[in-house]
Design a protein that fits this description.
α4 (about 60-65) crosses α5 (about 70-80) and α4 (about 60-65) packs across α6. It contains 12 helices and no strands. About 65% of the residues lie in helices and about 0% in strands. The chain folds into 2 domains: about 40-110, Orthogonal Bundle (434 Repressor (Amino-terminal Domain)); about 125-210, 434 Repressor (Amino-terminal Domain), CATH 1.10.260.40.
Length: about 220
């Protein structure tokens, strides 16, 4: 009798353990930083600017002056995107100014959170983006015309972007990132110093050539 009771308890414990473990497996566990992943790029930029300025304890006037932007632009950046009918869509030069004023890399400004914070780097965002777009476009097997059209732009858009002929807005870079299937911060990653210097030099030479052509006319 006692032996039967022991067996009953033993198998009861095993059965309970199996059922309990099965139940635990069915409970969904949210991944770390799930809420952070849901935040849009505009929200991450808004939070980074607000938190950064608060950390530096600077007024809006002082911070805007250091970032090279107007106070009105800063006010819009610090206002929650959900409270605006048309949230600000900054150009890359604005992002560069903000990163410099906050002394952080532009990737961190856009919500990238590496284990080790990136040191501030004065590489222009447009040069980084142009280089990374070129590299990822080649890896994806897309022509300049293909990427231009698929990202919703005119045919020569990517050609002009890669040649540093204009300064795009953040939404433009977002659209390109979706087509080449990367996080938008991948397009803002720092590039080798040698390549950066070469691209800056080529841009300067094109400007000189254009100026000479204009003077001849």
């Amino acid at each position: 009798m006692f032996k039967a009771y022991i067996n009953c308890v033993f198998f009861g414990v095993i059965f309970y353990s199996v059922i309990s473990s099965g139940s635990r497996k069915k409970i969904p566990v949210p991944p770390p930083f799930a809420e952070m992943a849901k935040k849009t790029l505009r929200v991450r930029l808004h939070e980074a600017v607000r938190a950064g300025r608060a950390r530096l304890k600077k007024s809006q006037d002082v911070f805007a002056r250091e970032a090279g932007i107007s106070r009105a632009v800063l006010v819009r950046l610090e206002r929650a995107p959900s409270d605006q009918v048309h949230p600000l869509d900054p150009r890359l030069t604005t992002l560069d100014g903000l990163a410099k004023a906050l002394q952080i890399d532009v990737c961190m400004l856009l919500g990238d959170s590496p284990a080790e914070p990136y040191l501030y780097c004065d590489q222009e965002s447009i040069v980084r983006v142009a280089s990374n777009v070129f590299r990822l476009r080649k890896m994806s097997g897309l022509s300049q015309d293909d990427l231009s059209e698929q990202s919703g732009h005119f045919r020569t858009y990517i050609h002009r972007l890669e040649r540093l002929q204009f300064i795009p807005r953040l939404s433009d870079v977002e659209g390109i990132a979706k087509i080449v299937e990367v996080n938008v911060t991948e397009l803002f990653k720092r590039i080798p110093d040698v390549e950066y210097a070469e691209r800056i030099q080529r841009r300067a030479m094109r400007l000189v050539d254009n100026a000479d052509s204009g003077s001849e006319g």
